[in-house]
């Protein structure tokens, strides 16, 4: 099975670019399942019902999120109602939504987990302590995927090695900069530290460079506007063995 996992979609610009490129790309690459991180898909930040539905209608099968999952309160009911969009599992249990989901592909079941890192991100439980219980919940899924939404590369790498052989795929999101370290770990788990983003290429994580520079230089409140530069769609294609759950091949992609 070919699984395409897409990096953080940024704003309406990223959503529109996704829609313009994804359907043809899926046909060209023979993609069976598409997963995307949508926590920055809404205008301004966060994710809304409208943004999530736009992403689904564009050809994405399953949405993960991150530390901005609850930024827009209008999405709370949507997170509770749907089983194809999840939020980080290691936030407080009273938060809306679920931290994992299962996709029935017919011949194989795919379990997806979403976790937050703790380095430089507040308000979450230890992901290493939480993930073992989550694996028990998706134990009947032959293919298991983790979106590790984290700032620190070391934390994401450590999680990859911790889960090597226990899950099929570990992808990092959150930093919006695609890393060139895609690999198959010793026990068959496919890994990349960060998928990158789907949004304006000439930007600071999707934001106009001038706005980011002003904020970093002066410390004054700054309106972060999405850059109007041409967009890109970044992610990885993982070819999995449906019988063993192991990854056979990884292709890092950046569509412009």
| Mean pLDDT score | 97
Helix count from the secondary structure assignment: 6
Q: Quote the CATH topology.
A: Purple Acid Phosphatase, chain A, domain 2
> What is the end-to-end distance?
25 Å
Total domain modules: 1
Number of strands: 13
* Coarse structural class: alpha/beta
Instruction: Tell me the major beta sheet.
Output: 7 strands, mixed
Give the SSE string: EEHEHEHEEHEHEEEEHEE
Report the β-strand fraction as a percent range. 25-35%
- The dominant shape is globular
Query: Are there runs of 5+ residues with pLDDT below 50, and where?
Result: none
Helix content: 25-40%
- CATH architecture title: 4-Layer Sandwich
CATH class bucket:
Alpha Beta
- Cα gyration radius (Å): 17 Å
CATH homologous superfamily, by name?
Answer: Metallo-dependent phosphatases
Descriptive tags:
256 residues; six-stranded mixed sheet; single chain; Purple Acid Phosphatase, chain A, domain 2; 25% helix; alpha/beta; seven-stranded mixed sheet
Short description:
This protein has 256 residues and is of the alpha/beta class.
Question: How would you explain this protein's 3D organization?
Answer:
This protein has one domain (2-255): Purple Acid Phosphatase, chain A, domain 2, CATH 3.60.21. The two termini are 25 Å apart. With 256 residues, the chain is an alpha/beta fold. The protein is built from six helices and 13 strands. It is globular and about 50 Å long. The longest helix has 19 residues, at 11-29. Strands 1, 2, 3, 4, 11, 12 and 13 form a seven-stranded mixed β-sheet that branches. A six-stranded mixed β-sheet has the order 5-6-7-8-10-9, covered by helices on one side.
